[in-house]
TrEMBL record:
It comes from the Eukaryota. InterPro entries: UstE-like (IPR010721). It comes from Perilla frutescens var. hirtella (Perilla citriodora). Keywords: Membrane, Transmembrane, Transmembrane helix. The keyword Hydrolase does not apply. Pfam families: DUF1295 (PF06966). This is 3-oxo-5-alpha-steroid 4-dehydrogenase. The lineage of its organism: Eukaryota, Viridiplantae, Streptophyta, Embryophyta, Tracheophyta. The keyword Transmembrane helix applies. The chain crosses the membrane at residues 7-27, 47-68, 80-99, 151-177, 184-205, 262-283. GO terms for cellular component: membrane. Gene3D superfamilies: 1.20.120.1630.
Length: 318
């Protein structure tokens, strides 16, 4: 039964983004085959790449994914596509007919983003025990209970439209990179190093928390006391090193955009900081509500000087 559900969820996940992908492929084929002029639809797609990307996002992800979530009574799929949508947007901007870019920079960013997506995908599937659609994000569950009968329409805005705005903003460097032919320079190397450091920190932080959760699951099955708080490895120096690594990654992408004279380069990291800040507060509130770890986690907060950035521990004065 579990394998059948997993297969069904995989089929749904594969088919769900096809409408926008097939539409865009049709646009590229008609565009390349056009002799004198394009039809009004294809001409609009040609002249408005950002609007086209947002329109496809709204129709295919916001509306279609939302409808599928209502049918399944679970909005699990948006979590899966969080690590796929940036890759799709990157290739969209790289292949659009108006794209103008330095080929080496484009390949570098595609390579880095592919590693980012693979890391996040591995983390997701490992955490979900290699199952699809088995559970919904706990934050969506909390909102579902809070909003009750109104959740069916509130979820469109809380889960999907809000994430469209967030994802489109933090992915703006992908657009900027493919709208500027500036030659590679030292700042591209700096941006790549920042991205790689973010990926490395996030990978080790995710692996350490995964091992911690797995160990507690084993201890619980054996009837032994579980460890309430992870305060080893990177988690000894930061309460959320995985979020710090993720922020570092997107900051590296912002450096690429800054190097290309994009004046609003800071908006992406700022939006990501706000989002991660909200998520961090929710996570810590959840930790403090669990009786078996509340006291230990409160102590952990008091002796950790850093909220995100890994740093040395120091007991706070009381």
């Amino acid at each position: 039964m579990a394998s059948t559900k997993n297969l069904r969820s995989a089929v749904v996940a594969i088919l769900a983004p096809l409408p926008s992908i097939l539409f865009y492929i049709s646009f590229l084929r008609c565009h390349s085959a056009a002799d004198d002029s394009l039809s009004p639809l294809w001409a609009w797609c040609h002249h408005h790449p950002l609007l086209l990307a947002n329109t496809l996002f709204f129709l295919n992800v916001d509306l279609l994914f939302w409808f599928i979530g209502l049918l399944q009574s679970s909005h699990w799929m948006i979590d899966l596509y969080w690590m796929v949508i940036p890759v799709l947007l990157l290739h969209f901007f790289a292949t659009h007919p108006l794209a103008e870019f330095n080929a080496l920079r484009s390949r570098l960013v595609i390579f880095l983003t592919s590693i980012w997506s693979l890391r996040l995908s591995h983390c997701y599937f490992r955490r979900e025990k290699w199952q699809l659609g088995a559970r919904e994000d706990w934050r969506f569950n909390d909102m579902r209970r809070r909003h009750g009968q109104n959740w069916w329409w509130i979820s469109l805005f809380a889960v999907y439209i809000s994430q469209q705005g967030f994802l489109m903003v933090i992915c703006m460097p992908f657009y900027v990179i493919h709208a500027n032919k500036k030659q590679l320079n030292i700042y591209d190397a700096v941006a790549a190093v920042v991205c790689l450091n973010g990926l490395t920190i996030a990978y080790f932080a995710d692996t350490q928390i995964y091992n911690f959760v797995s160990r507690n699951e084993r201890l619980k099955k054996e009837g032994q006391p579980v460890v309430p708080v992870l305060d080893e490895g990177l988690w000894r120096y930061s309460r959320h090193p995985n979020y710090f690594g993720e922020q570092l990654w997107w900051s590296g992408m912002a450096i690429f955009a800054w190097n290309l004279d994009y004046s609003w380069w800071f908006v992406g990291p700022l939006a990501n900081s706000v989002c991660l800040g909200i998520v961090t507060v929710l996570v810590e509130e959840r930790m403090l509500k669990e009786e078996y770890r509340a006291q230990a986690y409160n102590k952990y907060q008091q002796i950790t000087t850093s909220f995100w950035i890994p740093w040395f521990r120091k007991q706070k004065e009381t």
